[in-house]
Amino acid sequence: MESAMNIVDWLHKAEQHTPEAGPQGLKGRVIDALRTVYDPELPVNIYDLGLVYGLDVDEAAGKVQVRMTLTAPGCPVAQTFPATVQGVVEAVEGVNDALVELVWEPPWSRERMSEAARLDLGMV
Predict the structure, then answer these.
(1) From 3.20.20.70, 3.30.1330.60, 3.40.50.720, 3.30.300.130, which CATH number describes the 2-120 domain?
(2) Percent of the chain at pLDDT above 70?
(3) What is the mean pLDDT of residues 17-46?
(4) CA distance 3 to 10
């Protein structure tokens, strides 16, 4: 079990140091912030869960657009969760304007999850 935890820790650290997710720019800071928002039904953050379908960042203008979904259309937080995510993104240093769009196509599936998320949920 200890070796499994070490692998999970290693994967989380590796993901946080990729060019896309690193601390070097606004996009990296937004991804880091998205990783602090957890799905209300699963103990995994929305970014690693694969709920974020698109992330457009205009660093010069400080504008961020997030296209995301939920694990199921009938999710009880469907009405409020996008505003929660928007608030987290707006709190990121350098973000002047954020828009979170909830989309349902394509439907979310487990294949969208990162390997680290699958390990966290015991799916590997």
Answers:
(1) 3.30.300.130
(2) 81
(3) 82
(4) 10
